Amino acid sequence: MSSTTAGTPFPAETMRYIRAQFAQLEHDAHGTARLFFENSGGSLRLRRATERAQEVSLCPESTSRPNEAAQRLARVQHDGEADLLAFFGGEPSGALLHTATASQAMFTVVRTITDNVPGTNIVTTAIEHPSSYDACARYAERTGRELRVAEPDTSTGGIDPAALAALVDTGTSLVSVIATSNITGAITDIPAVVAAVRAKNPAVHIVTDAVQYAPHGVIDAAGWGIDAVNIAPYKMFGDRGNAFTYLSPRLAALDHDRLAGAASTTWNIGSAAPAMYAGFTTIMDYLATIGGAAPEVGRREAITAGLRAIHHHEQALLHTLLEGTTLRPGLRALPGVRVHFADQGIRARDLIVPLTFDNLSCADAVRAYGEHGIVVYERVATSHYSARILHALGLEGIVRVSPLHCHTVEEAEHFLAVTEKIARHAAG
Ligand SMILES: Cc1ncc(COP(=O)(O)O)c(C=O)c1O
Predict the structure, then answer these.
(1) 103 lines ligand 1 (CB under 6 A)
(2) 382, 44 Cβ separation under 8 angstroms
(3) For 133-160, how does the pLDDT look when each residue is reduced to its tens digit (9 = 90+)?
(4) 118 with 200, same domain?
(5) Closest ligand 1 atom to the C-alpha of 104?
(6) Which domain holds residue 255?
(7) Residues 344 and 254 both lie in one domain
(8) Structural domain contains residue 273
(9) Is the CB of 232 under 6 A from ligand 1?
């Protein structure tokens, strides 16, 4: 049995339960054995979340009708909204926006703030996902504002709150900052960003993309003091085709697209989709179960206990990958392999390992992993999703390794053994 010294892996019994919940954990849809270390591109699915969404989808009723079946659906949606508020740590007087993608929500939020809040500039960072960066660029241009872009810290792969706040002044209407980079895995200290930004301009609207962060850490929208935060369930054990955003009370109240008869703080336009809320509630049930909090605690405490347990397990996996175990050397010790942004420890890092090989292109490395039954993905500068971010970090590409909390230390060791083999083969 190997051992690792950071984080706390789930107890064996909890791990057995966790692994039984995920579909296609060890085999793809066609029965081919594989290790899925590409969860940042779309995570492994909780079987029950998809099944529950399908059960609800089978009901033809509309939540607005008075019959019992319809009212049950309305309750499903109501429970889902309560769970979203608990998950986001939002204020009850805030609003929720349901969209097909997280990107759509980000464009809506950025446009609404730009339409309503006067200012001369918008501040964002060079490592934002295009959904927020491009929305900021587009609405800055349309309203004649300056777009100010904070460069990342190239040693951490993340954003230094002081560097971001240095761009803020009394003319700043909006700051958009990513909670965790989906390329480097660096976690932004959002409370520090909010404090530094508001010290320069207390009125700034602050928007956070938490799509990568959400499956690995606790969001505290009200505690952090942010105005909008979005997530995509397909990155956190759920289905594709839906995304949720929390809006602070002051943002919710801004004039926005809505049906004339809707309440002034309603942001959803058109019919409800209770199946999406049912899937989300099932994910929250799962987090509450694995968190193991006492039954009498509130829903938010139960959910956050699950997220904290995930974080501890994932820190153990990250430590195993970087530093190895008693059985295997870690990535940082392997000749011919470079792990980026890992010199400062794992505390402010998500379970993403960006690496390159000295003697192998990223595309060839991904192919080699595939031949060994491991799915990873390359983020390269030829993709418009990655180019700006990679160049800001001084890179042309990385192999992105993104396991999930349902993976074990032993699977991480297997990954290390395969990586050693690939690096040795590449060196000739
Ligand atoms: C960090 C981050 N933000 C936003 C998005 C966009 O999500 P969606 O595909 O739901 O628009 C992604 C998707 O890759 C992402 O990784």
Answers:
(1) yes
(2) no
(3) 999 999 999 999 999 999 999 999 999 9
(4) yes
(5) 11
(6) 51-285
(7) no
(8) yes
(9) yes
Residues 341 and 277 in one domain: no
Closest CA to 41 of 409, 404, 426, 422: 404
pTM to 2 decimal places: 0.96
Encoded tokens for 18: 């966790």
Nearest to 35 by CA among 371, 304, 394, 424: 371
The encoded tokens of residue 34 equal 């594989």
62/114 same-domain check:
yes
Question: Is residue 268 located within the same domain as residue 154?
Answer: yes
Q: What pLDDT band is residue 5 in, cutting at 50, 70 and 90?
A: low
Looking at 285, 320, 339, the residue that finishes a domain is: 285
What spacing in Å lies between the alpha carbon of 112 and ligand 1's midpoint?
A: 20
- DSSP assignment of 278-308, as one string? HHHHHHHHHHHHHHT--TTS-HHHHHHHHHH
258 and 350 fall within a common domain: no
For the segment 304-334, what is each residue's pLDDT rounded down to a tens digit? Answer: 999 999 999 999 999 999 999 999 999 999 9
Q: Which of 212, 207, 210 is nearest to 185 (CA)?
A: 212
In the reported structure, the alpha carbon of residue 129 is separated from the centroid of ligand 1 by a whole-number distance in angstroms of 7
Q: Residue 166: inside a domain, yes or no?
A: yes
Query: Crossing angle of helices 12-21/274-291, nearest 10°?
Result: 170
Task: Tell me the residue ranges of DSSP E strands in 87-241.
Answer: 95-99, 121-125, 146-150, 172-178, 205-209, 228-231
H/E stretch holding 212: none
- For residue 159, being part of any structural domain is answered with yes
Q: What is the CATH number of the domain that holds 339?
A: 3.90.1150.10
